[in-house]
Amino acid sequence: MTKYYDIIxxxxxxEQSTKLIESENKYTFKVDRKANKVxxxxxxxxxxxxxxxxxxxxxxxxxxxxxxxxxxxxxxxxKAVVQLAEGDKIDAFTV
Length: 95
What we know:
Blueprint: H1 2-7, E1 8-11, H2 15-24, E2 26-31, H3 37-48, E3 52-60, E4 64-67, E5 70-73, E6 77-84
Antiparallel strand pairs: 1-2, 2-6, 3-6, 4-5
C-alpha cells in the first residue's frame, strides 16, 4: 500500500489548476518521474477512493534561475492531470 503513496508526490495548486477543477473536474499532481499512466490511475483511485476517467502526463523540464550572483536550475518533475468521473471530487484541493 505504501507504493501508491510513493507515486503521488504532491498536489499542484495554481490558478490554472483550480480553473480546471471547477470547469472540467481535472486535478493536477506532481508524481514520480518513473510512474506510468496506469500506475498513476491505480494510485489516485486507491488513495482518494474516486473513479478516474483519464490521465495525461507531462515531463516538466528543469528551468534556469538566477538569484543575484547565484545561478542554478529548478528541479525537473513529472506532472499528471487526472480527470475524475462526474460527481467525484478530492477534498485535498478545497481551501
